Please model this.
Amino acid sequence: MYFYQPAHGHGLPHDPLNAIVGPRPIGWISSVDPAGRRNLAPYSFFNCFNYRPPIIGFASSGWKDSVQNIVETKEFVWNLTTRPLAVAMNETSASLPHGDDEFARAGLTAAPSQLVNAPRVAESPVNFECRLSQCIQLTGADGTAVETWLVLGEVVGIHIDESLLEEGIYQTARAQPVLRAGGPSAYYTIDESHRFDLIRPDARRG
Model:
């Protein structure tokens, strides 16, 4: 077994951590600042954390425009990244001057949301309208603050392209979600051929 202590370095060509914990869904986050200027950025540390109320979250390494906008306005939108949108998503990862519009840079359409002021990516087949629930600065085990912020939001509105519903059931693979992997450039998607089903065991039976 290869063993290393992260505090002392991994000794490999590329840090394996985010390749091991993966593939990971992409937090493609749209927001606006109090002046109404739009921002759109992807975050590779993202997931869903609670059912009721539904809570999703992403972590930002550094205090970036997305975090600033969300803390000030208390709102954001998560947009599903699909294979046809992967290149556009990647365009929005560029470090632009404050106030520049990533929607325009990537050739994407900003669609109005119903419950929040932050816009949706119209081309994305799924959007979650969110209100900020917590913004937490992470710390190490010794309590030392890390320059990373975890942004958690309650999902208050969900948009789903009806082509992704079959008899009312959402078809995950049909959406061709894009998932971040390790290394500087690796992404994956999924298809129905990789599906398998497991039924959760009933602990009362024995």
Q: What stands out?
A: Residues 106 and 159 are 21 Å apart (CA to CA). The first strand starts at residue 24 and ends at 25. The two ends are 36 Å apart (CA to CA).
